[in-house]
């Protein structure tokens, strides 16, 4: 077994944390601390880590699971998993969530990097990327801007693409031991939702010895309004403690001591972003939550209807001629929660570091698109509608014409 395969197997079996849940339930909001909460969809068992695929089918079937209790705060509109236990989650080099093998996604990050470079005149400055993953975005941002970059992530691996002059990576967290760093821009993308105490995390960053009053922070998180409004339900995964609305993201930053410079949505409204500088804390007050409350109250029924409809879709097809396209959190969630989806032939993903692995829970194999060439494929279920055009193009090049459905 290779070292990478061994790490993946260990992550599936142990998840670098306790093997058993304590059964604790959070009764106060992660952002504002209020206890005026509304419960929604409950999952008794979701894989702990959707993005730590398993080396073999046996370890995939033995992968640990956790309870997910969707909870809505009527005070600040934050959504969170009241059953989340941070000590059960551990991120190692086996954690693989890079989307940079998709041309559609690369176009998105190129545009983002160009905007940040232009807005904050980053040439010759220093960028710190917290939770940089495999380093793809930091490399692109540094190349485009001419800035020096330092990436922090315990899942970073060497030999992932070409080195970029002036960019280095550290397998660690950005703590006080790196007080010598003076970043002009702090980037943190798709990380805050994993943190059990997001406001404490933001306060700790603000208090870092290297942070000055002019330091700019850029954060990006999933947009829970997309989940609720557009039924992007496959993003409900155990490793996400939080699901931010624009209001709760703003509240988290202001409470932690930041002044918001800009905020909005991106990537087809699937993401929220916020840009901020250190300032005096401004404690969160209640907001008008009625519109989002209605979405939450309707969500459980709409969720069950969608799961039932997709279960029926699979039941009417040959599972060995059906594949799911997308081996990230969406695809892993799909095969674990939709009835009959555990019998489908494979999950397809363009990321070569996912190929040859197995989905935690169902042990569904993850294959390259080329594995479909010459094979009988009746239906492809696309996990993210933003990739449909890209997937259709790849399938055409492979020389077959299956039905393509968006989950």
UniProtKB/TrEMBL annotation:
Signal peptide (from-to): none
GO BP annotation list: methylation
Claim: Cell wall biogenesis/degradation is one of the keywords in the record: no
Top-rank taxon, per record: Bacteria
GO molecular function: methyltransferase activity
Coiled coil spans: none
Pfam families per UniProt: Methyltransf_14 (PF08484), Methyltransf_23 (PF13489)
UniProt domain C-methyltransferase: residue ranges: 315-394
The protein's name in its UniProt record: Putative sugar nucleotide processing enzyme,similar to NDP-hexose methyltransferase protein
Alphabetically ordered keywords of this record: Methyltransferase, Transferase
């Amino acid at each position: 077994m290779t070292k990478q395969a061994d790490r993946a197997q260990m992550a599936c079996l142990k998840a670098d944390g306790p093997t058993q849940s304590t059964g604790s339930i959070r009764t106060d909001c992660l952002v504002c601390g209020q206890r005026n909460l509304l419960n929604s969809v409950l999952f008794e068992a979701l894989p702990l880590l959707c993005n730590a695929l398993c080396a073999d089918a046996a370890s995939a079937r033995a992968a640990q699971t956790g309870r997910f209790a969707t909870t809505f705060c009527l005070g600040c509109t934050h959504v969170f998993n009241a059953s989340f236990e941070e000590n059960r989650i551990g991120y190692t080099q086996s954690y693989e969530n890079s989307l940079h093998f998709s041309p559609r996604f690369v176009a998105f990050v190129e545009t983002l990097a160009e905007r940040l470079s232009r807005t904050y005149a980053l040439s010759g400055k220093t960028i710190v990327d917290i939770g940089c993953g495999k380093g793809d975005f930091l490399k692109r941002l540094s190349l485009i801007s001419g800035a020096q970059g330092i990436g922090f992530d315990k899942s970073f691996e060497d030999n992932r693409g070409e080195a970029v002059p002036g960019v280095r990576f550290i397998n660690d967290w950005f703590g006080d031991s790196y007080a010598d760093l003076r970043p002009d821009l702090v980037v943190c993308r798709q990380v805050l939702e994993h943190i059990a105490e997001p406001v404490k995390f933001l306060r700790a960053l603000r208090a870092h010895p290297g942070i000055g009053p002019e330091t700019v922070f850029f954060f990006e998180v999933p947009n829970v309004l997309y989940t609720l409004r557009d039924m992007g339900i496959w993003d409900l995964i155990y490793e996400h403690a939080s699901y931010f609305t624009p209001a709760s993201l703003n509240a988290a930053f202001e409470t932690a001591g930041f002044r918001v410079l800009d905020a909005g949505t991106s990537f087809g409204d699937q993401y929220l972003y916020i840009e901020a500088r250190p300032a005096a804390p401004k404690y969160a007050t209640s907001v008008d939550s009625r519109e989002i409350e209605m979405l939450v109250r309707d969500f459980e029924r709409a969720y069950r209807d969608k799961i039932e409809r997709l279960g029926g879709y699979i039941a009417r097809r040959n599972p060995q001629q059906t594949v799911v396209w997308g081996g990230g959190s969406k695809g892993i969630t799909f095969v674990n929660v939709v009835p009959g989806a555990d019998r489908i032939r494979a999950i397809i993903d363009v990321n070569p570091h996912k190929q040859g692995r197995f989905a935690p829970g169902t042990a569904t194999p993850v294959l390259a698109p080329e594995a479909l060439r010459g094979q009988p494929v009746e239906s492809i279920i696309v996990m993210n509608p933003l990739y449909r055009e890209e997937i259709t193009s790849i399938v055409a090049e492979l020389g077959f014409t299956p039905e393509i459905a968006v989950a």
